Amino acid sequence: MDIKDYTQIFIFLFLLVALTPLLGSYMAKVLKGEKNILTPVFGKFEKYIYSLSGVNIAQTMSWKRYASSLLIFNFVGFIFLFVILLFQNWLPLNPQQVENMNWHTALNTSISFITNTNWQSYSGETGLSYFSQMTGLTVQNFLSAATGIAVLIALTRGIIGRTTDQIGNFWIDITRSILYILLPLSILLAILLAGQGVIQNFESYTEVITLNGGRQTIPQGPAASQIAIKQLGTNGGGFFGTNSAHPFENPTPFSNFLQLLAILIIPAALTYTYGKMVKSTKQGWTIFTVMFILFVVGLAISLYSEFHQSTLWQNISFMEGKETRFGIANSVLWSTATTAASNGSVNAMHDSLTPLSGMVAMINMMLGEVIYGGAGAGLYGIIIFIILTVFIAGLMVGRTPEYLGKKIESFEVKMAMIAVLCPAIVILLFSAIACSIPSGLSSLNNEGPHGLSEILYAFASAAGNNGSVFAGLNVSTPFYNLMIGLGMLIGRFGIIIPVLAIAGSLAQKKTIPVSQGTFRTDNALFIGLLIAVIIIIGGLTFFPALSLAPIVDHILMQNGILF
Question: pLDDT band at residue 462, thresholds of 50, 70 and 90?
């Protein structure tokens, strides 16, 4: 690493911290229904949407009704996208006459985009029409991100509510999330990216003659609009097969920096939004600090692994699969940010990361995507760990655990454990199945521990609704499309439903006044305890699998054995 790498990383982290309260304050106003800077622009349109759709803005919902509305909404979105993909050859905006997608890939892709995963077992420029990219995928990028934000706000209302069974209105939450947050930020970012050279057109693909006389097809399309929301909504699905390693998606160092910042900015700012809504910004900064520490530690380990190798390899820095335009540091910063944020976009091939860097990316996902995580999803994920932490602390001091004045009892702990176990079951059980049958093993690009890493990574990505891939595993098969599709559903709704149940339960409880016996959740002690709980649960659950995959792979690489 040189001074330019250190400077960029410092500027990136500084802006992340500096922008968090600015965007967080704005989002708090939006999600509380208060007047904000964009109310004169979108206020009347918002009311028109409610009037047209028959939404009663005065009506709130119980957690069960909120959950059922969410599930129905996502199911309709799934059907809509599934039909588009199955019949895209006969739909408009298809200048390349892209064929209809086969059923199992269409099923996987539809599940992927409604769950905010954006796992792609196809190449965008050859597998999808412009209509599918815009009307299908880009629309779901907005809707799935807004769904995550809505669930977070519902949980927040449950925490601050008093003796009520109401946690808000799903239709209002999702409308405000899109209209005032995701849409204006996406328009701004799309304009900036287009100014950097990210393409945005409806032209047919261009045939050119190369310098050596060969013929090459240059893809075109409305990319900038999708790239903006794929990053801001922590979606990650690229317009082209190589994602943000493609020069039409990510042409310059500045576009690379903008996209990196866009990946984390909303999840980071939501911590401040949460603090404003619970009337304690210290609570928000406490959560932000936990996320920040875990992120920086993972980034440091990854950078060390990539830049400092054994004397057997002459201490070289490995360039295989890295983004040569931007350098190793940018590839590593991106791999750490995208797996920490449940984003899934890549500007380098994760299969070519050194074993320890690949392990950091896996651990980011295995911990439940709580290191910033998805839009809304990362924060409600870490609140699950907060519930477990205060429960453990309560057991240690012999006092009923509390969080922000609400007693944490058996129901909340059971729901939290379900939310923690669902992704773990997908990762470990599904990986074991894939390692045991020919359909799973036949897709491997590498043998030995690196091959196991490819399988573990795929199911960790699915369960964490991340969407990034090691790029060494052929997942375009019925087995992986179906198994990963099921994993994405469990990883998304297996957490959302328990979270909403917790919100409903907490909302019905009285708020207990703070006393000398109250365990504080906004100080350094709690930060350390929360980090320990996150790491211990992740370590106990996944360490055996990791020890057989990236850890063994690292040891063998240090001894000159590669896979």
Answer: very high
Reported as a single tens digit per residue, the pLDDT across 331-347 is: 999 999 999 999 989 99
Tens-place pLDDT, residues 506-518: 999 998 888 777 8
Q: Which residues of 100-139 are buried (b: 16+ CB within 10 A; e: fewer)?
A: bbeebbbbbbbbbbbbbbbbbbbebbebbbbebbbbbbbb
Write the DSSP assignment of 245-284 as a string of letters: GSTTTS-SHHHHHHHHHHHHHHHHHHHHHHHHHTT-HHHH
**Position of tokens 């082209």?**
240
DSSP lists the bridge partners of residue 330 as none
**Do 449 and 467 contact (CB within 8 A), yes or no?**
no
Nearest CA to 262 out of 301, 214, 305, 229 is that of: 229
CA 75, 479, 88: angle at the middle one, nearest 5? 50
What are 427's two structure tokens?
């990762």
- Angle, alpha carbons 160-183-364 (nearest 5°): 65
| Residue 454 Cα to chain centre, angstroms | 19
**55 token code pair:** 């939404």
Rounded to whole angstroms, the Cα distance separating 284 from 291 reads 11
Write the CB contacts of 365 (distance below 8 Å, at least 6 apart in sequence).
Answer: 339, 342, 457, 460, 461, 463, 464, 466
The three-state secondary structure class of 207 is strand
Question: What are the start-end ranges of the H helices in 115-209?
Answer: 124-127, 130-131, 139-160, 170-176, 183-196
Rounded CA Rg of the chain = 23
Please state the pTM of the whole predicted model.
Answer: 0.95
